[in-house]
Each structure stands twice: as C-alpha cells, then as structure tokens.
Design goal:
heterodimer, A: mainly alpha, two-stranded antiparallel ribbon, 16 helices, 4 strands, 67% helix, elongated, disordered N terminus, disordered C terminus, B: mainly alpha, two-stranded antiparallel sheet, 14 helices, 1% strand, globular
Chain lengths: 363, 316
C-alpha cells in the first residue's frame, strides 16, 4: 500500500529519514580518538547492544533458512510437491480419515502433522509446502530486485553526481520520470504488459511467467528512491579535499569514483539494503495479489494470499498463514534495518539522547 | 514569481510528454510478442486481432503508433476489447468512489500522523515513543490488502460491526456512504500514519536543536508551547508537501489495493479487475492518467508553496 506500501510517493519510513546518514569525509572517518575504533567497528558494537534489532534480524534469517529448506521438507515430511494436486486424497488425522477437500469444496484446515501441517487449499495442495516454496520465490524476487536497485541506483547516482552538467541533467530527468509514477501503478503497468509477452534484454530472453520479471520490475521501480539521495551525497562529496587530493595525485574519474567516492557511500548503501528488501517483498506481494507479479501456478506469499482472500469466511488459514509469514519476514528486516541505521548514523543517536536528557531536565 | 510559475509549467509539460512516451513504450514496444494480440485479450478471434492491428496502426512506424495511441486516449475512443466498453466513460463513472476514499483517508492520515509524530517527539526515548515506533514499524510492514482482509474478517464477518465492503454514493445516502467508508479509510491510512509520524518525529528532533528554539526556551516559554508554536510550525512544511504528493498518488490509482480488497467500485478496482482479465487498454489509460494527475498536482503544490515561502522561488 504504499500504501499500499509501495504506493506512496515516499518509499518507506526509513528512506526519507535515512538520508540523514552523513556525508563523511575521509578525515571524519578516521578512528575517533576516544575509542580508537573505526566507524564500522563502532557501528557493529552499537548494533550488538540493540537486542531488539538483533532478535528481529535473527527472525528474518530463520525464515530465510526455513524457506531454503523447502525441498527437504516437501520430500521427507510432507511427501508432496508445491503444485501437486491432492483433491481426491484422504488424510488420517487422529485416527479419523478425512477428505483433503470435502465434496462441497471445503479444504482441510491445519492437521498439525507431517502431511498438510497447515492444511490444504481448494486444489488440495499442501499449504505448508507452498508456504516454504512461496517464501523462496518471494525472497528470491526481493533479493534480486534489491540487487538490481542497489547496483543501478549506485551507478546512476555516482555518475550523475560526479559528472554533473549534461550527464546529470539527463539522468536526473529520467529518475524524475520514474519517480512521477505511483510505485504500484508503474509496477502493474510493467507487470501486465510483461506477463503476457516476456521481455528481451540484450542477449537475455525472459519468459512472461519467469520469476525474474517481477524482480526486474521491482528493481527498476525503486531506483529513483535510492539514486536520488546517493546523487545528493556525491554532489557534496566531490567538492571535498580528499577528491581534490586524488585528482592532484593523477587519478582519473573512474578511479576517483571507484576508490574514493564509492567507499564513502558504503554506509548509505548498507542502510538502504534492508529497507529495499522489505519494500521489494511488500511490492512483490502487492503485484502478485493483483495478478501482475509472480504468475500462477508458481507459489509466492502474494499469490497465496490472493488465492485465499475470497475464501476467508470458510477457510481463513489460506490467507492468514502466508500473511503472517509475510508480515513476520518484512517486520524482521524492517526492525533490523532500523537498528542498522541507528548504529551507522550516530548523529541521530546522539541527538536522541540529547533530547531525552533535556526532557528529563524539564520534568 | 511569474517566472517561477512559467518555468514550473514548462517543466511539467515536458514531464507529461515524457510520461506519455514511456507509458506507450511500456505497453506497446517493450514486451515481446504481438501488441494487437495483447490488446485483444485472451479470448479473441483472429478477425478482432486484425481489426485492432488496423485501427491502432501496429504496422506503422513507432512514432506514428505513438500519435495514434495518444489521439485515441485523449479523444476518449479507447475501448476495452474484453468487455466492449469505453474506458474513459468507465473511469469517469468510478471516480467518485476513489475521490471519497482518498479525501477521507488523506485527512485521517495527515491528522493522526501529526498527532503521533508530536507525541513521539515530546517523549523521545520514553515509553510512548517506543510504543509508537513499534506500531509504526508494524504498520509499514503489513500489506494494505492483508490488513483490509483481516479487518473485514473480524469486523464485518465475525462481529457484524461494519458492512462487508461495497460503496454507496454520497448523493444517495451520506450516512451510509460514510459507514461503508470508515474501514477503508482507516486501513488505507495505517501505512501513511506510520511513515508520517516517523518523518515528523525526526524533523521535530532536528528542529529542536536550532538556535531559535534555544532562544524560545531561554525566554522561559513552556516546553509544550515551544514544541507546538515554534518547532511544529517549521517541521510541518515538508510533511504537508509529502502529503500532497501521496494524496495525488492515491487518487491517481495508488489506492488500487484498498479499493480491490474492500470491493469499492473505484478507478483502482477497475484497474485491478482489468489486470485479472489481462485486459490491457484500461490498465494503460489508468496508468497514464494517474501519472499525469500526480505530475500536475505536484506542480500545483510547488506553486502554492512558492507563494507561501519566498525562499523556494529562488532555489526552485
């Protein structure tokens, strides 16, 4: 939702405020005299103290590992595959034989045992198996989309900010253009048109029902939200002494961008990654819900919710199981990402404590 | 000021043109396969496809196809081949529901976003702040369609407190109109409230370290008054401009998920139904008009803000 999380003109909570990660010159990045530790060591130390962020990060990691084990679970515990149809089968629950899908079309609920642990859908497919395979797809789309966004946005942001002038003019206009579309709208535009025909990028031909189509779409849609802040930082950075020093030392533009500018952007990039993963998973779910994302019969959390939503009154597990998993995964990355931002942006932390102190004085 | 307006208007026109080109490319040139076949939908006869290829000029050069497409859209001649209805008429018919949803939700999320943001900043680091942070994170981590489905299940199906979706025109029964919209309004607002309260909180904390705030405190003004009269006033500007953009995006089709889960017969719902049937023409027209609306409204807000704050004129 960006509201549709993804719908909003603002990409997410962290993104607008995430720009606060300061532009650090080499000088400032030197180990601070009081501790003798570098900024990343300090950041790690701060992150380690943030138990909530670590716990939620672990939760996300757990979900990732579970989803990666999907084939093991399917083969050894559930004895089925994600798209296998068991409509006419029966399953024994507590000594009673039950239809997987009743003659009236009512799918079985959670059995809390190996087969149909979390119930079946109206096609007699095992929900638990689909949940794990679907999670694999959702996470894969999220990871690939984040990779596309981060690589392209960093490239565009650095190029635009470093060369300024004409190059910047063109790139900034393109970013503005993508930015003008509401996120979900651009997503469904690309999703609808590509789902039917697929796309050819250079030598790569991608089929319409491939997982890479939603990943590609989501990756493109979010580029401006990352590229714009990076461009702003590079604009400020290129005026600083360490860039001048490198230039005097005979470094060409490529070398300056690669070994002077890029390392100084790393904390911004690190802060954006968890946020983009969360947003990408949410947008995948939204697009799949509308039918413009992962194409059936491929499971994903979004398609599972979409399949189940009309049957909520009679079989709410179809919606709530993938829904809960989706929310937990996204919440996990979001809270962890929030912690990473706090850890790498000490300025905000100091400010917060400062205010806290002041508030106490007031009382 | 006049120069600013003219410049803004000029750049807006350029963006509108670029959007029309990009939308055209997305739907007709980028995907593989036959555009006429795509236009016609899944169950089409070869004759329909041939007719579509002729009327849309898919054998012409690309620039001519672009001109044909724009002419069709702006003269309101686009027809959805799956349903055989005029797309623009349909959008016009669905507009009231979308506007009702957007306006109500916009007011709610701006108001609650500001209230929660101020509460958070006043007690930064305290219990209220922490609780609101957790709530905001949960809010932005929940897809709106899931939240809507859960709300409908518990509040409309289990406890029959609210109607089970649907839209009643304002002109028909204002009370019933609001009654049907309360849940969609709240559900659509949740994510925005989460974002706005976080953004406002950090803006407020930023502003609090400014010199004039210290001066105000030094004069002995109460902390509450400093926050409301001095700090909040300045921190609201970015919030309101963010609001204008998000509001435009919601009207321009951003509420598609909310409309679809609550079965509100609005523009977004129309788009959602069209996607399910892989009916391309309505999706194309809605995407383009939606993006147009966002661009025009953001230009209008820029001009309004320039009227209010002279500094923007110089930098913009």
């Amino acid at each position: 939702m960006a509201s549709d999380p993804s719908i909003s003109a603002s990409a997410g909570p962290g993104i607008s405020s995430g720009a606060g990660v300061g532009v650090r010159s080499r000088e400032e990045a030197q180990p601070s005299p009081s501790t003798g530790l570098g900024p990343y060591r300090l950041g790690l130390r701060r992150l380690r103290r943030n138990k909530a962020a670590l716990a939620f990060g672990a939760l996300f990691l757990l979900i990732v590992v579970l989803c990666l084990c999907a084939p093991l679970y399917a083969e050894h515990v559930a004895h089925t595959t994600p798209n296998a149809n068991h409509v006419t089968d029966t399953v024994t629950v507590g000594g009673v034989r039950k239809d997987v899908v009743s003659p009236t079309g009512q799918p079985i609920g959670p059995t809390w045992q190996g087969r149909f642990l979390l119930g079946a859908d109206q096609n007699g497919r095992d929900i638990a198996v689909r949940l794990l395979y679907g999670g694999r797809n959702s996470l894969e789309v999220g990871a690939v989309a984040t990779l596309i966004t981060m690589v392209l946005a960093t490239l565009v942001g650095i190029t635009a900010g470093f060369f300024r002038g004409f190059v910047d003019g063109v790139l900034a206009r393109i970013l503005d253009l993508i930015w003008a579309y509401p996120v979900v709208l651009l997503g469904i535009a690309l999703g609808t048109s590509l789902a039917l025909g697929g796309i050819t990028i250079g030598p790569l031909e991608i089929q319409g029902n491939s997982l890479m189509v939603p990943a590609f779409i989501i990756g493109i849609v979010y580029i401006p939200y990352v590229a714009k802040p990076i461009r702003g930082q590079v604009l400020g950075m290129r005026e600083q002494e360490f860039v001048d020093a490198a230039r005097v030392g005979g470094a060409g533009p490529l070398r300056i961008m690669w070994s002077e500018i890029l390392p100084n952007l790393s904390s911004t990039i690190i802060v954006f990654i968890p946020l983009m993963i969360a947003n990408a998973i949410l947008l995948e779910a939204a697009l799949s819900y509308l039918g413009a994302g992962v194409q059936p019969p491929n499971p994903s959390w979004g398609t599972m919710i979409s399949d189940g939503i009309r049957l909520i009154p009679s079989a709410m597990h179809l919606t709530f199981v993938p829904g809960l998993m989706l929310v937990l995964a996204v919440l996990g990355v979001n809270v962890f990402g929030d912690g990473v931002r706090d850890a790498l942006d000490p300025r905000a932390k100091v400010r917060l404590e400062d205010v806290q102190e002041r508030a106490e004085v007031q009382r | 000021m006049t120069r600013f307006v003219i410049r803004r208007f000029f750049s807006m026109t350029l963006v509108l043109f670029a959007i029309s080109v990009l939308t055209f490319l997305i739907f007709q040139a980028i995907p593989n396969g036959d555009p006429a076949q795509r236009m016609a939908g899944r169950l089409s006869s070869p004759e329909t496809v041939a007719a579509i290829r002729r009327t849309w000029g898919f054998d012409d050069p690309l620039w001519q196809q672009y001109l044909t497409t724009m002419k069709k859209i702006f003269s309101g001649e686009v027809i959805s081949y799956t349903q055989q209805v005029n797309v623009l008429d349909e959008i016009w018919k669905d507009l009231p529901a979308t506007l009702s949803l957007a306006i109500g939700a916009g007011i709610i999320w701006l108001f609650l976003g500001v209230v929660f943001g101020v509460l958070s900043a006043m007690r930064a680091g305290g219990f209220t702040d922490r609780a609101l942070t957790v709530a905001a994170l949960a809010g932005v981590s929940t897809p709106v369609f899931l939240l809507g489905a859960v709300a409908l299940y518990f509040l409309a199906f289990k406890v029959q407190l609210f109607p089970n979706g649907g839209y009643v025109p304002l002109t028909q029964d204002p009370l019933d109109w609001a009654y049907h919209l309360i849940l969609p309004w709240l559900v659509l607002s949740v994510l925005f409230i989460g974002i706005y309260s976080r953004v406002l909180r950090s803006n407020l904390l930023d502003t609090m370290s400014e010199d004039y705030v210290r001066t105000a405190r030094a004069k002995g003004i109460s902390e509450r008054r400093v926050l409301i009269r001095h700090v909040l006033r300045n921190s609201l500007i970015p919030i309101v401009s963010l609001w204008a953009l998000d509001f435009a995006a919601v009207i321009g089709g951003g509420a598609i998920l909310t409309e679809s889960v609550f079965n509100l017969q609005g523009v977004g719902q129309y788009a959602a139904e069209s996607i399910q049937q892989l009916d391309v023409p309505p999706v194309m027209v809605i995407v383009m008009l939606g993006a147009f609306f966002v661009v025009v409204l953001s230009a209008v807000t820029d001009v309004l803000f320039a009227l209010l704050d002279p500094r923007i004129r110089l930098t913009g």
